[in-house]
Design a protein that fits this description.
elongated, Rossmann fold, six-stranded parallel beta sheet
């Protein structure tokens, strides 16, 4: 049987080196490329068409969620397995809705990682036990739908509002900056809290930081 070609995506070279060395110990797995940000991952996925992309979340230029969405739009048969240090239900919801087939944490052991990759290559889903437990503890477990997972992603405007909240602007200041009414900004905030199932400003800021949204762009 032909080996599984894997594209590694992480913005830290030491992580990429470690993953490549680890995967080299399984004869059925071959690293066909390495990308250091989401935009590069999309381009390399188009060029190499790997069987599996092992994807980080927080990266410059384009994060792992947006990269997952872009890759699946271009090549639906490429399987994307998330490898992240963050275990948050909102990330899991977004990534599974974007088309990822699984989610494992960076503190996983070699056996679990191999298992998750082989399942991904076979087109099956896998959630690390800790990720599944976080979903079970949340008030909003994954809702399976016919062609993926139900999740309402943030709109472009809502992302702008999140980044301005992160910059510590008040609702009035956000309204002025975006040429909106304060009532409209308040509606956006309400929708953001509802979609992400986050209920404090501190939680929104934490979410944005872990997405790598350091500035408005």
């Amino acid at each position: 049987m032909a080996p599984t070609n894997i594209l590694l995506v992480d913005d830290q070279s030491i992580i990429l080196d470690g993953l490549e060395a680890l995967l080299a110990q399984d004869d059925d797995l071959v690293v066909c490329g390495r990308a250091i940000n989401g935009r590069m991952a999309v381009e390399m996925a188009k060029a190499l068409h790997p069987h599996v992309v092992l994807m980080d979340i927080n990266m410059p230029e384009m994060d792992g969620i947006e990269a997952t969405r872009a890759i699946k739009k271009h090549a639906p048969t490429i399987q994307i397995l998330v490898l992240s240090m963050y275990n948050h239900p909102e990330f899991t919801h977004e990534l599974m809705a974007a088309g990822a087939c699984g989610y494992v944490l960076k503190n996983t052991d070699r056996t679990e990682l191999y298992h998750a990759i082989h399942l991904a290559a076979a087109g099956q889903h896998y959630l690390a036990p800790a990720v599944q437990a976080s979903l079970n503890d949340s008030r909003r477990p994954l809702a399976k739908v016919r062609d993926g997972y139900a999740y309402a992603a943030l709109t472009k405007r809502e992302k702008e509002v999140v980044k301005l909240i992160m910059a510590e602007l008040t609702a009035h200041q956000i309204a002025e900056k975006l040429f909106l009414s304060k009532d409209t900004v308040d509606t956006h905030r309400k929708n953001i809290f509802s979609k992400l199932d986050i209920h404090t400003t501190a939680g929104i800021v934490k979410y944005a930081m872990e997405r790598g949204w350091g500035e408005l762009n």
